[in-house]
């Protein structure tokens, strides 16, 4: 749905140039939630604004739903942008308009008739759970409610792609959870493709199918979240599931992204004559699937063969250095 190749963005200041994007390739599948995570100044917001051409890249191409938006200008670009909704970090609502008026605004610009606007606004407010707030003004809303209005407004022209610019960073934890759940629900019910940027790994863990780590204007790692969790040396996996601190020698961290009915720990002791001591573990929901983490002490002459056996069963096996 989104295919960006070789994106480069250079800002030319009076005495120097600032490279915000340096050869970024971005590929977002139809119907998935793709997250870009990184610190402030990494280039995340510039990347997002290059997708809908609010910033025109210095070099590279962007295709959205098959159309090369970097080749468009004027009316054709405005039409293409209607298929790309955007949710802002600080809501960007019009304070003089009611909730219904804010949601209706892009429809007015598009020339949609009054009756159709009213019907569409009512439908959207029901979708985001704000039917009772249609006549309220932004100043009368909580942060979470304002963001729901922003999401409804972005969806008004029926876009196929939704861009989310740090949509939850100004919200408290409970409200963040509700907004992320809403985005995931919209993704599933409407088949909406979502590209979001964030500096929080927890956002990636909760709703993203694929993700990329961005530093200094380029991706250092990119792929499907579940694939990265099963990849040795993955920085994303290490950030989502940090290796534990332990005083027990010969400890390994086991990460598994698929359910198994096999009694693997019992099998280790029988087949390889090793001692197995389970030190702790947890199961979390990542990318819509249960991902488990188990910290296990494995000791014995056949330890290496036992760990190879676990790797062969599809588990990510990482040695934990004792304190």
Describe the structure.
The protein has 323 residues and is α/β, with parallel strands linked by helices. The chain is 34% helix and 30% strand. It contains eleven helices and 14 strands. It has helices at 44-51, 74-81, 99-109, 114-127, 143-155, 173-190, 201-207, 225-229, 235-240, 264-272, 303-312, and strands spanning 2-12, 17-28, 33-37, 59-64, 67-68, 84-87, 161-165, 193-198, 210-215, 218-224, 251-256, 275-286, 289-299, 316-320. The strands form three sheets. A six-stranded mixed beta sheet has the order 6-7-8-3-9-10, sandwiched between helices. Strands 2-1-4-5 form a four-stranded antiparallel beta sheet, with helices on one face. Strand 7, helix 6 and strand 8 (193-198) form a beta-alpha-beta unit. Helix 3 runs parallel beside helix 5.
Quick overview of this protein structure:
The protein has 11 helices and 14 strands.
Give the total of beta strands. 14
> Separation of termini?
47 Å
Beta-strand share of residues: 25-35%
Outline the low-pLDDT stretches. Answer: none
Q: From the structure provided, what is the oligomeric state, counting identical versus distinct chains? A: single chain
Order of strands across the widest beta sheet? 6-7-8-3-9-10
Q: What is the SS-derived class?
A: alpha/beta
Task: Sum up the structure in keywords.
alpha/beta, 4-stranded antiparallel beta sheet, 323 residues, 6-stranded mixed beta sheet, 30% strand
Summarize the SSE layout with pairings.
Blueprint: E1 2-12, E2 17-28, E3 33-37, H1 44-51, E4 59-64, E5 67-68, H2 74-81, E6 84-87, H3 99-109, H4 114-127, H5 143-155, E7 161-165, H6 173-190, E8 193-198, H7 201-207, E9 210-215, E10 218-224, H8 225-229, H9 235-240, E11 251-256, H10 264-272, E12 275-286, E13 289-299, H11 303-312, E14 316-320
Parallel strand pairs: 3-8, 3-9, 6-7, 7-8
Antiparallel strand pairs: 1-2, 1-4, 4-5, 9-10, 11-13, 11-14, 12-13
Helix pairs in contact: 3-4, 3-5, 4-5, 5-6, 10-11
């Amino acid at each position: 749905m989104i295919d960006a190749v070789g994106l480069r963005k250079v800002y030319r200041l009076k005495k120097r140039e600032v490279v915000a994007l340096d050869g970024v390739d971005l590929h977002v599948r139809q119907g998935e939630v793709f997250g870009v995570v990184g610190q402030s100044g990494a280039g995340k917001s510039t990347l997002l604004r290059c997708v809908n051409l609010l910033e025109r890249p210095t070099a590279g191409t962007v295709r959205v739903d098959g159309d090369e938006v970097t080749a468009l200008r004027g009316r054709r670009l405005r039409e293409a942008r209607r298929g790309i909704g955007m949710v802002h970090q600080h809501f960007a609502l019009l304070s003089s308009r009611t909730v219904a008026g804010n949601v209706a605004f892009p429809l007015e610009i598009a020339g949609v008739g009054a009756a159709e606007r009213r019907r569409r606004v009512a439908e959207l407010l029901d979708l985001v759970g704000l039917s009772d707030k249609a006549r309220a003004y932004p100043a009368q809303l909580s942060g979470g409610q304002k963001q729901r209005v922003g999401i409804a407004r972005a969806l008004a022209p029926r876009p196929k792609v939704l861009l989310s610019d740090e949509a939850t960073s100004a919200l408290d934890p409970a409200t963040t959870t509700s907004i992320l759940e809403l985005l995931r629900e919209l993704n599933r019910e409407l088949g909406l493709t979502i590209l979001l940027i964030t500096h929080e790994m927890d956002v990636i863990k909760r709703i993203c199918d694929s993700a990329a780590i961005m530093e200094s204007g380029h991706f250092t790692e990119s792929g499907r979240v579940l694939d990265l969790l099963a990849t040795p040396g993955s920085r994303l996996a290490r950030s989502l599931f940090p290796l534990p601190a332990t005083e027990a020698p010969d400890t390994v961290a086991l990460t598994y992204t698929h359910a198994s009915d096999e009694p693997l720990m019992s099998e280790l002791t029988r087949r390889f004559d090793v001692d197995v001591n389970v030190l702790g573990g947890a199961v979390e929901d990542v990318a819509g699937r249960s991902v488990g983490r188990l910290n296990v002490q494995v000791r014995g002459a056949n330890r290496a063969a036992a760990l190879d056996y676990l790797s062969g069963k599809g588990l990510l096996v990482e040695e934990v250095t004792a304190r």
